[in-house]
Amino acid sequence: MKLQVKAGDITEQEVDAIVVNVFEGVSQPEGATKSVNTAIKDIITSLIETGEVRGKSGELTLIHTQNSIKPKRVLVAGLGPKEKFNQDSIRSISGAIIRFLNAKKIKTYSTVLHGGGEGGIKTTVAARSIAEGTILGAYKFSEHKSKKQKQYIEQVTVVEMDNSKVKDIKRGIDEGVSIASSVSLARDMVNQPANYMTPSDLVDIATDICDGTDVELEVFDESRMQQLKMGALLGVAKGSVVPPKMIIMKYLGDAKNPDNNIGLIGKGITFDSGGISIKPSGGMAAMKGDMAGAASVISAMKAITELKPKINVTAIAAATENMPGGNAQKPGDVVVAMDGTTIEVDNTDAEGRLVLSDAVSYGVQLGLKRIVDVATLTGAIEIALGKVTTGAFSNNDELVSQVIDAGTQAGEKIWELPTFDEYRELYKSDVADLKNVGGRQAGSITGAMFIGEFAKDVAWVHLDIASTSTSPKTSGMITRGATGIPVRTLIYLVLALSKG
Ligand code: BES
Ligand code: ZN
Ligand code: MN
User: 153 CA distance to ligand 2 centroid (A)?
Assistant: First the structure.
């Protein structure tokens, strides 16, 4: 599918459909919608009068133009109330539009720049949001289907009357395409079954991203992990026959200022059976997605290398399976993490914090000044926040507010939960420095704080995406299955930090 911009009059496009919009409660459409309405003999205003078009958010009304103008169809998209309208409304409606028109089996459509006029959204931002929403709303994963789901739409054009805006629209579209491709890649990785997405497969994807760029790639195998004394990660990996990998990608956007840096660290459990503390069989297949954190940080690097922000970004993915077996670690085992901390493995299913403890220690050793770790860490986060919101945990107010702001821009909801010292009692061990579970209370908090112990004094944020990395339904720009959350938050965060 090709996304482009063109200067001109939208009513005169040689396309199968044109897309205009109305805000909720408006009786007289403005801008391009107004001129389309006039050209098709006021059909839109009469539909507003009869209440068929109300401008409700997500409402889509298809009008056949019967040769009154060149395009055969006009799609009127509802933008919802103007007070609630923002860049994320543009993404959602754009996602809904492409699925609607694809279902009509049409090939080409042109759209006005939603939000660019009355909506008051900056031109580049509106264009970027259309690109993100359109590409991600059209996302499908049918690699393993003999009969592929068909993508009919071949070309989407943003048509703009005002010639002076075309350059900014083009820039917005290019950024949006780059960002959305990163998210699609993350969705693919998470949707892919565990037999197609092993730690080595993650390495191959990271290699593809780095090839032909200045991004430096390092991959640690088991023996390198042993040299570095990554006992917590290796303890998890012991039960599996597939070799673990630690993937390190270094982007130097501000090489002269090495301290202007951020580390993005992802949990990469390519299948979480629970290990010896084995999970119930119902729903276990969903644990192919337990590498969503790693997928997010690796794919965010793709857009980062393309958008070239002035900041140094290191992505670290800690990848292994968590399996039972004759060589698997056992509940009660004690492992020694890279930083020397001894950990009692009370439950082998709390493996994410184990692999991340060594990945975070390694990041601290690299001299990272800020760390954001991303993990499908706890089932408890879904109890706390449902499937709407990602949980954030931090030792640094500034960094966590920057992460939450980036999430707001991205339309990915994030809410901070506390990390009070009192919770540390819950994961003290009788036999070692720490134990890897904190009991029934505050499960997401103790999991997060366990990881935070290894960040030491470095500014650190943990994002628990166990409930938000997948969605049971398609809606707006989100499609059923992997969501690609929080890839766009990470990209927007890095872009914002790079601007100081
Ligand atoms: N990968 C799971 C968390 C998870 C649950 C992700 C549901 C996605 C959907 C994690 O490794 C895990 O097993 N966590 C345990 C921790 C417990 C043993 C302290 C959990 O949440 O039950
Ligand atoms: Zn897990
Ligand atoms: Mn687990």
Answer: 38
Q: Where are the beta strands (DSSP E) in 281-431?
A: 312-322, 333-336, 342-345, 370-375, 390-394, 414-416
Domains defined along the chain, listed by start: 2-163 (3.40.220.10), 181-499 (3.40.630.10)
Closest CA relative to residue 470, chosen from 300, 286, 280, 285: 286
List, in order, residues 6 or more apart from 285 with CB less than 8 Å away. none
* Residue appearing with tokens 């393309």: 306
- Kindly list the strands in the beta sheet with 333-336, ordered across the sheet, starting from the edge strand earlier in the chain: 333-336, 342-345, 434-435
Asked if the peptide bond before residue 486 counts as cis, ω within 30 degrees of 0, the response is yes
Task: Give the residue, out of 236, 291, 351, 377, with the most ligand 1 atoms within 8 A of its beta carbon, to mutate for a pocket test.
Answer: 377
Query: Stretch 240-258: mean pLDDT, rounded?
Result: 98
> pLDDT for 409-457, tens place per residue?
999 999 999 999 999 999 999 999 999 999 999 999 999 999 999 999 9
Q: Are 155 and 5 in contact (CB under 8 A)?
A: no
**Binding site membership of 379 for ligand 1 (Cβ less than 6 Å):** yes
Predicted confidence at residue 148, as pLDDT, reads 86
378 lines ligand 1 (CB under 6 A): yes
What is the CA angle 365-435-470, rounded to 5? 75
DSSP-derived secondary structure letter, 164: G
The pTM for the full model equals 0.98
Residue 106 token pair: 């049409």
Ligand 1, atom nearest to 277 Cα = 18
Distances (CA, A) of 21 to 96, 154, 373, 437, 462: 13, 22, 39, 51, 39
Q: Residues 472-490: pLDDT tens digits?
A: 999 999 999 999 999 999 9
pLDDT digit string (tens) for 371-380?
Answer: 999 999 999 9
Q: Provide the mean pLDDT of the chain.
A: 97
d(CA 10, CA 140): 29
Residue 347 in contact with ligand 1 by CB distance below 6 A:
yes
pLDDT in tens, 334-359: 999 999 999 999 999 999 999 999 99
Distance of CA 270 to the CA centre of its chain: 17
Question: Which of 273, 349, 374 to mutate to test ligand 1, by most ligand atoms within 8 A of the CB atom?
Answer: 349
Tell whether ligand 1 has an atom less than 6 A from the beta carbon of residue 380.
yes
Angle, CA of 197, 202 and 206, to the nearest 5° = 150
